[in-house]
């Protein structure tokens, strides 16, 4: 299916959308929800899919999954599962019956409805880097994350039309007190961006506060809030085969209030999962489905996506690697499994590189193209990730957005049109009549009519020849990215959340701070 | 189809092949002829393919192609084509009848038969950068190409198992006299590498000397030489719609002596071809098929591949761009057309970047993945290209080989195996029985048995965490690449062409130099 680009362009005309020509800092593509029109790359045969499914079911039936959450255990008992201590064994019929209740696509609507996103239905959407403990910039080097850096990365997230959602805190604002950090962080995210937000499942207070703040920002009552997803949470399992208490608790709270959850096992093959990819994917599927089955039992039809984070370790050092051939194939295989279960699929942009250099970009290009190839709907960490997720980098975010924009352009249907205008036989004949020395296409009407929009226009790539590039200062890409960061921060415009809602959020934060925020001793 | 990796590994045991553990300078994958097992990405419907074919045929029938070659014009007249001056109009029936004579795959066998390559039959093979006039290294900056640089790039071409063939001179040895340059250059290529060589179609002397030297290096008589391809030539058309004299002359000489030709129109959309991709691809197909039809008329069944070099220009400056979304789609569309005509397909690794930095690698990753997606058989300029082909860079070659190796690994069938061992349910159950604090897969037999070969091992990527990377000198990728270049040049080993053949080549070169080489005034 091909998206109506005109329609998405019109949608982008809301109060906060950035249109070409008045974007902050750079000329960029308009906001849109791109569809992935490529047939996915499918390394597994139908039988291979069935075999991985069978292995996942055997894990669920014979080995079981630990749920360190008493409420979940009680629910599983009620559902008729075999519960041995904290170990839950699930029959495949129950799992498949529950998973079948989950929608194959759903929307998440933030306070600015123009920024509504659709997970599934052939879309591929990109989020900023999430949850990095550290920050690296060319000027500042590597430091633990700070509130100021957090706010700058939110500004970039907002400024780039190709970033569709916040994927958690782009960097941990470690200088904010842990008990109240989530209040300040979400206040910033809701006032400095108008894109979908994520709240962490790290204790009841944090996730409930998150939902309450999203509700206030959108000016909704509880019924309207619960009527559809307005935010989401993402959890990782504790591989192998374990779900921890706060993650399950947070997801249960979300689905009960109508909000979306993404379950993303983090199965590093050879470390927390089998060294063989099919095994790592099977384990990931088992871990993911066990949680989704629970959430569907509690809230049938609730919005759940299946995540994948299957990569490999460097067998020499045990260090995780990303954007590798194994990562690409695991992602493609996971995409096949998600389609088999009829669930929206989450994957990631990622790399192991420590600085925004050549390696960072070949690894990230591999990861992002594997997201495309796998039919991934929701690309976490799409922009700004370094060092296996331990570093958020503004320069890397700018580079990644250049690549993401190219993926958006790649999916524009006019590129592959074969209508008469596109075939251009008349243009070829017209140029052929020109004197031999002038036989080029620059000047003819067919070219001039399409001059402005024919090709992707980069904001960061330098396409000058060497001599002009050298005259311009011979600036390498990472340094150009650094300058672009400055320009975009300078030009940042807040999305304009209505003043009464800002005040409602301020009041909420003040009250919850007075109450002590969230306990920090769990 | 899945390649028998064992078989190719055994083949690599020849006198000059580099096996894991005794490779010069780095640990690398063994020589192999990888097969592309992915279903191609096909942006065109069947009707879209038919429409581009129809446009190409209209160009050939109604507009025609200029052949600035009297012999070609005479041949076309004889074949019944409409020849008006230097303009040839070709009926689609004739073109399709001729193209159908071309094989869908063929082999090229260099003097070391262990380095035989297969063009087509599902293979994807990679060549070094070709024909760059300039050289850039981190130490030496940008300079016109020299003989010393040429020889160093040959050493790297030989040393990397993932480079399957020489794609012309990696850099122009501009300090050698043009009349005799081809003699020295081919002598070096044939003695310093044992991989398939290319000779330029730049006048009868150069191409005939090239064939004679390949024959001498392989120790063949003329009959044996002509019995199958032992080398190839690649030509570009002079777009729009023109074939120049020396290119057609060289190809005619090649096919008459049983050697392979690759016809690669260089159709920059918006400059030398329509601004719309379907039009640029149609023109490219028309230019390519017109030449291939001629070669099949002269030598039915001769080895011909269809090349694509359709990219776009920066409409602001007219500068060519590579590795763009438009480039990727055009390559995929061209792959569909090549399959429609049953011809092996050539594409390229390419970028517009001027230095081996982040942009260079996202553009090159885009280009190389589009070669994979398009079912390309023969990737020219796979390693070492910068500045739209105006620069050859040893550091870039090393980086590209890291990425190419990952593509080779990506196609190894064990990655996507779903046999019982790969599903690893028993391994999951085994780890589950370990004490909670030891529940990981590092130590179990399933992991240990696969420890050595489970994952791709990089030679250039740094997967250390930031702190260890920093302790190791905080070396960015381009600087690590520079050190790798030094290490590989140091460890280079000549492939050991037999002394009598070296002497035969020396005698040939001496005689042809005494005769004056090739005229340089055309």
Q: How would you characterize the overall build of this protein?
A:
The structure is a homodimer of 522-residue chains. Chain A has helices spanning 5-11, 46-63, 70-79, 92-99, 147-159, 181-192, 204-218, 222-226, 245-256, 277-298, 325-341, 358-373, 394-410, 420-423, 425-432, 445-448, 466-471, 477-491, 499-514; strands spanning 65-67, 82-84, 87-89, 106-108, 117-119, 125-128, 134-137, 141-144, 232-235, 242-243, 260-263, 268-269, 304-307, 311-313, 320-321, 345-348, 378-383, 385-386, 391-392. In chain A, the strands form 5 sheets. Chain A has a 6-stranded parallel beta sheet. In chain A, strands 2-3-1-10 form a 4-stranded mixed beta sheet. A 4-stranded mixed beta sheet of chain A has the order 8-7-19-18, with helices on one face. Helix content of chain A is 43%, strand content 12%. The longest helix of chain A is centred in the middle third of the chain and has 22 residues, at 277-298. In chain A, strand 16 (345-348), helix 12 and strand 17 form a beta-alpha-beta unit. Chain A is globular and about 85 Å long. Chain A has 19 helices and 19 strands. The model of chain A is unreliable at 1-22 (pLDDT under 50). Chain A is of the alpha/beta class.
